[in-house]
Amino acid sequence: MLGEADSRLVLRSRNLHRVKNKARMLRALYERLDRLQDAAPAAETTAVVSPVGSGRPA
Predict the structure, then answer these.
(1) What whole-number distance in Å separates Cα of residue 21 and Cα of residue 29?
(2) With 70 as the cut, is the pLDDT of residue 57 above it?
(3) Which site among 26, 28, 48, 53 is 20 to 30 Å from 34 CA-CA?
């Protein structure tokens, strides 16, 4: 999706239909980014980190 967005967003839009399509694409990209950002903190808090070299047997 990023490749498609990259190629489409750089083109000039001279009519309303194309401008609206770009706006929809930008909104979809930001919605996906929001979902990724919401998922990232949850993944970090559930990760288990084992101490290395703490002197305790594993």
Answers:
(1) 12
(2) no
(3) 48
